[in-house]
Design brief:
638 residues; 2 domains; 7-stranded parallel β-sheet; 23 strands; 16% strand; Phosphoesterase; TAT_signal; signal
Length: 638
């Protein structure tokens, strides 16, 4: 079986009874892997299981029960769907879910193109840590060179190869080259070591595969039954009553012993996500793109006919938990810090950038050479792959973020505290009600793609401090989610925070220091806005739903565009203190001409005046025209 990993634990319900998060009692008694669960309930009733990050090293082959294996516990939601038996005697507990699971595989494999089949072969046979490198985009080639990372699987045959194919170091590879993430004896050796550590001794999917005994889709029919037709194919494999078509290139690569070749969870998926999270820790400039690539490559397991959606979801869940556990482990503290420092130093030197400009370089390619250059396209592809065919039932429930999960955002949102990173994970999480995702600790509900874009809600007031001198994300970052909630935002520090979402938080916005950039009309939510210091920069237009107050020693920076309404519209009133500055910049595409009057501010009531008005033009100057309900400027030649 492929390698992978995960975590799940039993919990007590409100009445103090053990919640059957691994299925009903009949299923647990009948299933060999879970036979001890209920018997151990009384002994465990007084003490909750250890958190996954504290117990992840129990994931070894000798442990195949939820009591003994943290990965089996974290995947326990699957036992609500599937009653474990021998590999060919399991029983669907939610037949509608597993029927949809196999039908999805049938449709995807029936619609598969030859190019998709070949891609699925490459991802199947190539070292997963190497496959993930292309998620680094413009940095990928530099990484392969610096890490001495190589592969022998670069293309797929037109048909079925004569035997099994494994990745290997090519004979003509440079001396010291290595598979996967690369050589430890290289300029990126610490990064390679981190990837291998995250994918280390406790990251195998095999214990969970043996525990759940859920067959691969090509062995199952729509009823999730294994029916052997008594025939064999040209390769000697039994032919099952299944419409799932394995890619021709992979027919000889299949496991030959069904009892040792379970489908749930997908080991390749686990490995791909583990590698992506390790790379993302070391190179957070490509965090979100690496999440998108992991989801895309995991999908090829379904395209190949080798796995089903529930297998892939299970692989993602266990990888999320395992990566957090490994990165949280104090034994790896020096390694993860060294890997991040090494990657930053290497890439800035090779690209001629700084910590402040590396992000821009890492996103400098178009979709022609970087398949993940379009963030919105990534989001559209990623979201359905987090749940696939899983229906949602019941009401949403708040998520208690699993212990240690915040480490996954440690380098991507370094300016936030650990508690704030937990809030980001909580407010961007998937809703409750998806079976599998609601297992012990609910690791499956974490949406790391969305979390890379900051908060999803301000449920309480949030204060964020960015430090320009610290560089990188400390100096400047963008939050792209649509932020809701009753809380408000206070921006401090010398750095720049950009809000791009259509935000609906109600608690107001306070800019105390640095720069706050509003990149959408609703960027600052639905409350009051107060600029007490620093610069509020409006990229196009801004609508303030409450009042707008600007105090001394602060700047409002607005664009001026020909034949356009006010750049700032306020629903209540505008108050301007003495000492405040208005900085105007001419729109590059449609600048207004000399002699025109351009509206700037609009509100039911305006009180006060700016101390001065600046215009970024050597030939024009702006003459203010104040009224009781707004401000315009008349442009005249100098």
């Amino acid at each position: 079986m492929p390698s992978s990993a995960g975590h799940h634990s039993p919990t007590l319900n409100r009445r103090g009874f053990l919640r059957a998060s691994l299925g009903g009692s009949a299923a647990l008694v009948a299933a060999p892997a879970f036979a001890g669960w209920l018997g151990a309930a009384d002994a465990k009733a007084a003490t909750a299981p250890a958190a996954f990050v504290d117990d992840y090293k129990t994931n070894v082959m000798t442990n195949q029960t939820p009591e003994t294996n943290a990965v089996v516990r974290v995947l326990g939601g699957f036992a609500q769907v599937w009653k474990t038996g021998a590999w060919n005697t399991g029983v669907p507990l939610m037949p509608e879910v597993l029927r949809a699971n196999i039908r999805y595989c049938e449709r995807i494999t029936a619609e598969r193109t030859e190019a998709e089949a070949k891609e699925a072969f490459v991802i199947d046979r190539q070292h997963q840590s190497y496959s993930m490198i292309d998620g680094l985009g413009p940095l990928a080639a530099l990484y392969k060179t610096g890490a001495k990372a190589v592969t022998s699987v670069t293309s797929a045959p037109d048909g079925t190869p004569p035997g099994k194919i494994s990745d290997a170091v090519p004979a003509d590879a440079p001396a010291g080259s290595a598979l996967g993430a690369g050589s430890y004896d290289s300029e990126l050796g610490q990064v390679a070591r981190l990837v291998d550590t995250v994918r280390g001794n406790w990251a195998s999917s095999n214990p969970a595969k043996f525990a759940f005994q859920y067959p691969r889709p090509w062995r199952m029919n729509e009823e999730s039954e294994v029916v052997d037709t008594g025939r064999t194919d040209e390769f000697g494999f039994p032919v099952y009553e299944s419409k799932v078509v394995v890619a021709p290139q992979l027919l000889r690569q299949r496991g030959e012993k069904p009892a040792d070749d379970g489908g749930f969870p997908s080991g390749h998926t686990n490995a791909l996500h583990l590698a992506s999270l390790a790379y993302a820790y070391a190179v957070p400039e490509r965090f979100q793109e690496l999440m998108a690539r992991a989801l895309e490559l995991a999908h090829t397991r379904i395209v190949a006919g080798m796995h089903s959606p529930v297998d892939v979801v299970g692989g993602r869940i266990m990888a999320t938990a395992l990566a957090a556990a490994t990165l949280t482990d104090p034994a790896n503290a020096e390694l993860k810090a060294a890997a991040r420092a090494q990657a930053l130093a290497y890439f800035t030197e090779r690209t001629g950038t700084t910590a402040d400009t590396l992000y821009a370089y890492a996103h400098s390619a178009g979709t022609g050479t970087d398949p993940y250059a379009d963030r919105d396209a990534n989001a559209r592809a990623a979201r359905p792959r987090l749940t696939y065919i899983l229906p949602r039932r019941g009401r949403d429930q708040p998520l208690t973020v699993p212990k240690g999960a915040e480490v996954l955002l440690e380098t991507r949102l370094p300016y936030l505290t650990a508690d704030q990173r937990r809030e980001v994970l909580r407010t961007t999480a998937l809703p409750a009600g998806h079976v599998l995702l609601d297992g012990s600790e609910q690791w499956g509900r974490l949406n790391l793609f969305a979390a890379a874009d900051g908060y999803g809600a301000f449920d309480t007031d949030v204060t964020v401090t960015l430090d320009a001198a610290a560089g990188g994300f400390h100096a400047a970052d963008s939050w792209r989610n649509d932020i809701e909630g009753d809380g408000g935002l206070t921006k401090r520090g010398t750095g720049t925070l950009t809000l791009t979402g259509h935000n609906r938080y109600h608690g107001g916005t306070l800019l105390a220091e640095g720069t706050l950039a509003a990149a959408s009309p609703g960027a600052l939510g639905q409350g009051d806005v107060r600029v007490a210091g620093g610069t509020l920069r409006v990229d196009k237009v801004l609508r303030v739903r409450g009042s707008y107050v600007q105090e001394g020693a602060s700047t409002l920076r607005l664009p001026l565009r020909r034949n356009h309404g006010p750049a700032l519209t306020v629903s209540r009133r505008i108050l301007l203190d003495r000492g405040s500055v208005l900085a105007l910049r001419l729109d590059a595409e449609r600048p207004p001409a000399a002699g025109t009057t351009v509206p700037v501010l609009s509100a039911p009531a305006l009180r006060g005046r700016f101390d001065r008005i600046e215009l970024d033009s050597e030939t024009l100057r702006a003459i203010p025209v104040y009224t009781a309900d707004g401000l315009s400027v008349r442009l005249v030649r100098r």
